[in-house]
Amino acid sequence: MKNTITTVLCGTLLLSGTVFVSGAAFADDYAWDQLVALTDETNGIGARRVGTPQEKQTADWIAEQWKKSGYKVTSQPFSFELDGKVLKSENVMVDIPGQSDKVLVIGAHYDTKGDEKGSLGATDNGSGVVALLAMAKDLKGKQLPYTVRLIAFGAEEFGLNGSKYYVNKTGALDNVVGMINLDTIIGGDKLYVHSAHSTPYKCDYVRKANYTGDTSVRSGLKAVSDQLYKENGHKLHPTFEGYPEGETGNWSDHAPFACGGIPIGYLEATNFAIDGEEGNDGYSQTTNDALWSCFDDKTLSACNREEEKHWGKIWHTKFDRLDTLTPLFKDRLQTQLNQNIQVLETFALEANKWVK
Ligand SMILES: [Zn+2]
């Protein structure tokens, strides 16, 4: 409790006089408090670019939080090449034991991009990381049908390095029946769940490529979310150029798992209704005027496509930080975070209903 109060105060100071939404309305502020603690530049870690001391510090911080929740934490160090340099990173993981040897992987990358523009990676992907922390705390001692393996992936930006490394390790996919990727699960206007594409990704980096576009994890997550949140549940994106309804590309940590033959689900907050820079592809995340030079409500696009500078994008921009976003979105960020966690925990508790 003391910790919660301290962090809330800290959050109030951080937002320096702007509207701070009291956590009183929420049953559990743990995830939100951890997001504040991780992304605060002054008292926390802030940006976490690949190969920096801050990325390493984040891996250690995640391990420390899981240890506080009573887990044995495994670190999986790896190196990778970026722009001709060899960099180091690591995956950090815990297993929450279930009643069978089948494994459900839930993963989120902890590195960030766009620090030169002022991003602190609050939504991309601090949100996914703190969901992993909350699940470890909440699911401890619960009767889980399958073991839940939580993995914080290093070095996702610039090459999915952590998830590729994990998938290529001998035995890493043994008994794994499904994988859920969390990447930017708050911030955007709507919550979505995706599956891998029905057309196989290029999988030449996976030793035993055995691609699947199986939709069972997506279907299960959607059913759980619809049941709990009715019309506000996670949506499937409509069909857009090259992407049938609900199917996503290979740009995040779910891709190596799909290549390894594992059914995937991918949670994301964005807005596929917006006609963005490249069409309705979900890269424009919000209609909020503050994130556009000028947004036209009628066309759901920029007033002037030539002159638009921001395109409603939060990720990798100066908007991806709580001191900017919280005043713009009020309690939406925390509400979305808690909804995602609730859906994930419910899915984990009945995973045998959805994946075999
Ligand atoms: Zn991301």
Automatic annotation (TrEMBL):
Keyword Transcription: no
Superkingdom to which the source organism belongs: Bacteria
Protein's GO biological process: proteolysis
Recorded GO MF terms: metalloexopeptidase activity
SUPFAM superfamilies: Zn-dependent exopeptidases
Keyword line: Signal
Domain Peptidase M28: 91-327
Signal peptide (residue range): 1-27
Protein name: Zn-dependent exopeptidase M28
Organism of derivation: Enterovibrio norvegicus FF-454
